[in-house]
Every structure is written in structure tokens, then in C-alpha cells.
Design a protein that fits this description.
Strand content: 25-35%
CATH superfamily: STAS domain
Radius of gyration: 14 Å
Largest sheet: 5 strands, mixed
Number of domains: 1
Structural class: alpha/beta
Order of helices and strands: EEEHEHEH
Number of strands: 5
Number of helices: 3
Distance between the termini: 27 Å
CATH class: Alpha Beta
CATH architecture: 2-Layer Sandwich
């Protein structure tokens, strides 16, 4: 995890057509990158978030501390990213439980 003394930060705010906000803050140092998410993670944010993950040039961590709401497609997106090696940190219990239920309901192979 980037230390306070040598991390750099860049952020953006995305507002969906329905007015739902997602803030993406990129915290990075030479050895790691964290994408800190805040707000509502909805289907309309996934394309941009996927591009941000790819732009990290490695396997970033997604910090979900301040994510207040997700939809089903966002949960499926998170499942696929975990399968690719992205680590979900500070994931709320309700999101983690939903991920577990979605994996068992649909079958792991659907997300690989």
C-alpha cells in the first residue's frame, strides 16, 4: 500500500444520467496502485472503471470503503476483476455477501 509520504493522487468524479455519483481516486507509488471508490457503483460507471484499472499497468487494489450502493452488474464486474487478480480491500459485508451469493448462484465459470 502506498505510504503517506510518497504517494501521488489523482481523482475524478463521474455522474451518471440518473445523477448517481462515483468518485475514483488513484493513489499510487512505484510499487502499488489503489483505486479508492466513493459513492454509488452502478452499471454506467463500469466502462470507465475498467479503463482506469487497465491504465494502472499492473494489478491494482480497489478500495471499497466509501462505496454506498452497488447494482448486480457491478457485483458481477467485481467478481470478474477478482478472478483477474484485482484485490478488493475494505469491502463492506453486504457487498462481500452479495459477491458470494452471486458466485454460487451463477457458477464460478460464468465469471472467468
Amino acid at each position: 500500500m502506498p505510504s503517506e509520504s510518497n504517494k501521488s493522487a489523482r481523482g475524478m468524479v463521474v455522474i451518471s444520467e440518473q445523477g448517481h455519483m462515483l468518485r475514483i481516486e488513484k493513489l499510487s507509488d512505484p510499487t502499488s496502485t489503489i483505486l479508492k471508490l466513493s459513492g454509488w457503483l452502478q452499471e454506467e460507471h463500469l466502462l470507465l472503471l475498467g479503463k482506469e484499472i487497465q491504465a494502472c499497468g499492473g494489478t491494482p487494489q480497489l478500495d471499497l470503503t466509501d462505496v454506498t450502493l452497488v447494482d448486480r452488474l457491478s457485483v458481477q464486474f467485481l467478481i470478474r476483476r477478482e478472478a483477474e487478480g484485482v484485490q478488493l480491500i475494505n469491502c463492506s459485508l453486504y457487498i462481500r455477501e452479495w459477491i458470494t451469493r452471486e458466485r454460487s448462484k451463477r457458477g464460478w465459470a460464468d465469471f472467468e
